[in-house]
Every structure is written in structure tokens, then in C-alpha cells.
């Protein structure tokens, strides 16, 4: 990880957004994290990659593996570990920061405020930076795991104006960054025209993930205005793909 002058993870994200600096996050799903030699192989590829951040979380984690995965990543790597929680049971005080996600693209009150109320007393006791984040699912059928588990429909790809209006509302509500997600394993990434339209409309940093599998996908997403791009399923399938994913062209 390159040295940062800022004091918090969000400060560094905002600074990179302002300067046009690219960030690459690798998402590790605790439910599907490998073990043994496969885990060491993943750590080795992460260590030699251009990744700037590690995200930990998933749509469904049925055990207490989040904290274990966070601690193992912290022991093996020097990158910041940021929680990307699908539920309050994915909170770990061992992480560096947590995306405090509000699903602003849907109409499920539980994911707009309900689970936040449930998690707030615990978070208040932890030395964990919480980052108010507007989470936006964008895509067409078939539904991804994120859409299914959230009981909400994503914003259709053919409605970029709705995505822009949603992003604007999130910024006006005081959310500090936006996470645009096509969903884990999505067949189609979020269109660059949609990302660019949102980038032109809001000032907060954009994190973009879902369906990004190669360098060309990453470059298009960065060029459209994302500060941080997120890869998950592609790395889960084959960690060596990180050798082909670089921050610079």
C-alpha cells in the first residue's frame, strides 16, 4: 500500500478521488474463502498484486468466519482491510474500516435503516472507522445473490437517469461515498455511460464492482470516473488473474 498523509481510510479515498488516483480492491467472501495451500496461494498473489485495499464480506455468511478472515489478512498483508458487510454478524473490530451500507437503490427498510439500528450499539464500542456509504445495485436479470438476499430489485441498466437521481439523493442525505454494484458474479458490468453520468452529478468518491474480470474492464471503469474498482469472483475463481490487473496502463 502506498503511504497516505490522511488519517482515516475515508480521507485517503477522498484524496485519491480528488487527485484521480486509482484504487483496486479485492473482495474476499468469508463464506467462500479458501483454506490451507489455497489460502496461502491467494495471499501470495495479493502480496505481489497492485491491490490497494481488501474488502471482506458477502451476501450470506452463516458462521463467525468474518473476524477470522480479517485477522488472517491483517497478519499476512499490509493492506487496509475494509468490511463490506451483508449483515450485522459480519462486523469485526479487527478491520481498519467498515462501509456502513444503506441500500438506496431498493425500498427495503431493513437495509435502509433497520440493520443499522441493530448494529449501532456494537459499532459505538469498537475502534472501527465507519464510512456512510450509499449502496446501489444496478443491473438486469438474472438476479444476483445481492439482489436476492436484499429482497430488492436493482436499477435497470436502461434507466441511467434513475441511477443518477438515486446517487444525488444519497449525496444530499450526507452519504460520504457511493458503491455501484452489478452484483457478485454479474455477467454484465455497470455501463461506463452510467458511471460517467453519476460521476458528473456527484462529488463523493465512487466505488464500482460486479462483473469486472480483466484489465480492460478495470480501465474502462476507472476512466468512467470510479476511484476504486472491486474484483471478487474472478479472483475467487483464479487468484493468478491478479497478475494481469494493474493500476497503471
Task: Describe the structure in your own words.
The chain has 249 residues and is α/β, with parallel strands linked by helices. It has a single domain, classed as TIM Barrel, CATH 3.20.20. The chain is 39% helix and 17% strand. The chain is built from 9 helices and 8 strands. The chain has helices at 9-19, 36-48, 65-76, 109-125, 145-150, 160-172, 192-201, 215-224, 233-237; strands at 23-28, 53-56, 81-83, 97-103, 129-137, 177-181, 206-209, 228-231. Strands 1-2-3-4-5-6-7-8 form an 8-stranded parallel barrel, surrounded by 5 helices. The radius of gyration is 17 Å and the shape is globular.
Annotated CATH topology = TIM Barrel
Round the mean pLDDT to the nearest integer and report it.
93
Question: What's the shape?
Answer: globular
Q: N-to-C terminal Cα separation, in Å?
A: 18 Å
Q: SSE string, helix = H, strand = E?
A: HEHEHEEHEHHEHEHEH
CATH class call: Alpha Beta
Concise summary:
This protein is of the alpha/beta class.
Amino acid at each position: 500500500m502506498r503511504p497516505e498523509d490522511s488519517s482515516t481510510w475515508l480521507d485517503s479515498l477522498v484524496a485519491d478521488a480528488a487527485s484521480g488516483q486509482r484504487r483496486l480492491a479485492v473482495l474476499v467472501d468469508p463464506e467462500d474463502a479458501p483454506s490451507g495451500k489455497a489460502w496461502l496461494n491467494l495471499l501470495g498473489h495479493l502480496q505481489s498484486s497492485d491491490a490497494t485495499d481488501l474488502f471482506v464480506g458477502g451476501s450470506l455468511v452463516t458462521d463467525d468466519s468474518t473476524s477470522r478472515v480479517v485477522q488472517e489478512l491483517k497478519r499476512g498483508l499490509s493492506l487496509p482491510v475494509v468490511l463490506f458487510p451483508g449483515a450485522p454478524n459480519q462486523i469485526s473490530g479487527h478491520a481498519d474500516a467498515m462501509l456502513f451500507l444503506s441500500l438506496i437503490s431498493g425500498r427495503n427498510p431493513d437495509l435502509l435503516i433497520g440493520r443499522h439500528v441493530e448494529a449501532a450499539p456494537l459499532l459505538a464500542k469498537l475502534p472501527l472507522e465507519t464510512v456512510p456509504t450509499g449502496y446501489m445495485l444496478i443491473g438486469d436479470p438474472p438476479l444476483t445473490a445481492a439482489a436476492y438476499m436484499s429482497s430488492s430489485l436493482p436499477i435497470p441498466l436502461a434507466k441511467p437517469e434513475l441511477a443518477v437521481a438515486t446517487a444525488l439523493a444519497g449525496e444530499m442525505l450526507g452519504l460520504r461515498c457511493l458503491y455501484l454494484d452489478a452484483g457478485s458474479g454479474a455477467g454484465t458490468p455497470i455501463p461506463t455511460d452510467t458511471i460517467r453520468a453519476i460521476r458528473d452529478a456527484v462529488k463523493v468518491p465512487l466505488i464500482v464492482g460486479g462483473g469486472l474480470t480483466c484489465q480492460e474492464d478495470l480501465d474502462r471503469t476507472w476512466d468512467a470516473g470510479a476511484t476504486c474498482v472491486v474484483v471478487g469472483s474472478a479472483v475467487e475463481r483464479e487468484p493468478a488473474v491478479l497478475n494481469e490487473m494493474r493500476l497503471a496502463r
